[in-house]
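During the practical work, I selected for study one protein's amino acid sequence and its backbone structure tokens, as given directly below:
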Amino acid sequence: MNICVFLSAAELDERYTLPAREFAELLGRGGHTLVWGGSESGLMKVVADGVQAAGGRLVGVSVDFLAAKARKNADEMVIARDLAERKALLLAKADAVAILVGGTGTLDEATEILELKKHGKTTKPVVILNTAGFYNGLKEQFRRMEEEGFLPVPLTDLVFFAEGADAALAHLEGNAGA
């Protein structure tokens, strides 16, 4: 299965890198392909290293202005013209989506896939790996949106919040092609 992972390219401490590495190793051992932003820095590098070391494939989609930071030994690397094209390519190459810790870029990517799901434009499973409670506030906001009528579909139809790497991968594997 091709699993798109949205996450940060920042250098982060072990409370974020260790769970990301665990998830990456599960992907690689499971024979999955990582579809990611292609960066050779920060958490993106941690995940790519983990997938590759565990036997998985790497499909990167970088963007023109970040091409110098793209991983050189990926199995496939595409350079998009801009961020919009990058997101479209990432999603087109993926069977499922996992969202790990990240900043505004990760949040942008996450909300785009959820908006597509909300409107029935994709049925790909989406998991948010809630490492160290990083997405607790977002989870609460989504619940409020649901309770107050801002979501036309149940939150559980849009996204699964996983507290660990095993649960995240199990959800993706169990719901791909659904």
